[in-house]
Write a structure and sequence with these properties.
Blueprint: H1 2-10, H2 36-42, H3 48-64, E1 71-75, E2 80-86, E3 91-93, E4 96-107, E5 110-120, E6 126-133
Antiparallel strand pairs: 1-2, 2-4, 3-4, 4-5, 5-6
Protein name: Surface antigen domain-containing protein
InterPro entries: Anti_2 (IPR032635)
Organism: Tardiphaga robiniae
Length: 137
């Protein structure tokens, strides 16, 4: 009887070898017990103003160029906040100096991550050319 109780208790808690306890559920991965509408309601999308502040923070932290630094940002009108942290050393892409970065995004109890890349423009400022949801590999 004990083996049956343990088996039925642990049966719903298994994870495949490529899954992580911290992995986020994509929009199409919905179990029968959760309606797609409730999953979408918990996924908060950044506003354009939030993204502008994130891009500005990325440009600022890359311009400073100091090693192991992060740049916080906050949008008082939406309550969103986060920080941007460069991930790698500079590299050359299409003749331009570029760097990758990771940006946190927090709004209320919702938290997510975005990955991005920025390259130095003609005037020496860093221009973000990629900013998208971070996917674990």
């Amino acid at each position: 009887m004990t083996a049956i109780l343990i088996g039925s208790t642990l049966g719903g808690c298994s994870m495949g070898r490529n899954e992580s306890a911290l992995a986020k559920m994509e929009g199409g991965d919905v179990t029968g017990s959760i309606s797609p509408a409730s999953v979408q309601a918990t996924n908060y999308e950044p506003t354009e103003a939030d993204l502008v502040l994130t891009r500005t923070a990325a440009s600022d932290v890359l311009t400073k160029g100091s090693k192991d630094s992060s740049q916080p940002w906050e949008n008082p009108s939406t309550g969103a906040r986060g920080s941007v942290t460069p991930l790698s050393s500079a590299y050359v892409a299409e003749g331009r100096t570029c760097r990758d970065f990771l940006a946190s995004y927090v709004n209320g109890t919702n938290e997510s991550w975005m990955q991005g890349a920025a390259c130095k423009g003609d005037r020496g400022s860093w221009d973000v050319h990629t900013l998208k949801p971070w996917k674990r590999s």
